Amino acid sequence: MSKRETYEAKAEELLKPITTKLGIEIYDVEYVKEGSDYYLRAYIDKPEGVNINDCETVSRAFSDMLDEADPIPDAYILEVSSPGLGRTLKKDRHLQKSIGKEVEVKLFKAVDAKTKQKDFCGILESFDEKTITIREGEGNTVTFERSNVALIRLALDF
Known about the structure:
With 158 residues, the chain is α+β, with helices and mostly antiparallel strands. The chain has three helices and eight strands; from the N terminus they run αββαβαβββββ. Helices cover 28% and strands 35% of the residues. The longest helix is centred in the first third of the chain and has 20 residues, at 3-22. It is elongated and about 55 Å long.
């Protein structure tokens, strides 16, 4: 397990009792470097959506737990927020909750050399450990190798 994965797992472990008590779900935890700064980001959610008060409550309690346990020796900036409307679907549990919803899929490289298309939009039909299948507007299904998917997120429909 990498240092990043270890920090994320430890942080999620500390966050779990806080969110459980408040009836909030942990959507994701990430530890990333942006520029010269490290960020520990916790994304939280609940069926009716989270608001600024939820984020503040979780942030204060989580910050205290992190200070006490000190699982990350590096300096970092803590952020707690909603995953947003166009949330990235990183984990199988995110994909499972999104079956039947419209998603955007961005590929690392085009699957068809003629069209050079790397961006797709459609209804998430299914997935497994190696593939993701969507149904496009014309009704045809397209299956992508997960190793070729750069990003998959919920589509924003305004």
